[in-house]
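Private note to self, pasted from the team thread so I don't lose it. Backbone tokens:
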């Protein structure tokens, strides 16, 4: 939700640097994570998110991070994995001090101030966010994927459907062919 709001406000950014503070995170939190939801989130971040990630910094890394990474690594592409950095404390290297919140030794507003700004932004878009919850995909409009068998037979239809004649295939081909 927040990403949708920020994209509506600022448009596309050059990229995002994400800070994730593990302070207070326990193994109990890990038990609450649904693997299908985690997979859907990882697909969204890697395939559908309109802005790219520049880096992900995990602060106050817990000693059980290896267990978390065993779950997450199979879902992450290697180029994304290469931008994830783990830090034992709260001072990530390579991030300008003016971008860090005050609690992390930076010059940016405090976390509480940033939290209030975020809540205000989401409140501004609350009706739009509610409206978008009802959006549905019409899978009937998706192009049908050809099976591997169609490469040998020339038919793109499954066995239970009537295959197109050669004339119908030509007609279908030229109908979809667009020439400028």
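Design output:
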């Amino acid at each position: 939700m927040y990403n949708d709001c920020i994209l509506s406000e600022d448009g596309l950014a050059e990229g995002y640097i994400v800070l994730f503070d593990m302070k207070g995170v326990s193994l109990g939190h890990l038990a609450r994570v649904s693997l299908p939801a985690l997979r859907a989130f990882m697909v969204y971040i890697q395939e559908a998110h309109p802005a790219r990630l520049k880096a992900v910094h995990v602060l106050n890394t817990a000693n059980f991070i290896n267990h978390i990474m065993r779950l997450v690594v199979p879902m992450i592409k290697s180029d994304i994995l290469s931008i994830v950095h783990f830090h034992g404390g709260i001072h990530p290297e390579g991030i300008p001090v003016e971008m860090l919140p005050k609690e992390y030794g930076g010059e940016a507003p405090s976390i509480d101030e940033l939290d209030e700004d975020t809540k205000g932004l989401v409140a501004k878009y609350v009706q739009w966010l509610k409206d978008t919850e009802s959006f549905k995909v019409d899978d009937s409009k998706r192009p049908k994927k050809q099976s591997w068998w169609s490469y040998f037979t020339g038919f793109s239809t499954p066995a239970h459907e009537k295959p197109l004649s050669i004339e119908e295939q030509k007609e279908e081909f030229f109908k979809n062919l667009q020439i400028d």
